[in-house]
Design a protein that fits this description.
By secondary structure, the chain is mostly helical. It contains 5 helices and 2 strands. The structure holds iron/sulfur cluster. The site of iron/sulfur cluster has 12 residues, from strand 1, helix 1 and helix 2.
Amino acid sequence: MIEVYDSLMIYCPQLGGEVPFKYCRTLLHDHLPCRKIIICWEFKLEIGKFLNEHYSLEQIQKALAPPTKTRMETILELIEKAKKVKEEG
Ligand code: SF4
């Protein structure tokens, strides 16, 4: 059952306070786990097994994937490309 660890508490480095496991496992919009769930919980429970049992590979990848590019990175890339075009042109 997915709620089995819900009431366990942990210190959240992002919030600077204690949160229950339920918070960590439903953090993302579509109720997917926080990106750091493995790092934070690996010594407290069998987090790998838990993820494996309750989520599809696709869901796990979606939840744990690195964040998409920031706006600034995208802008910098565009500038870089524009420069190259200018140099080549
Ligand atoms: S898994 Fe995410 S929400 Fe939970 S304690 Fe770690 S950083 Fe905080």
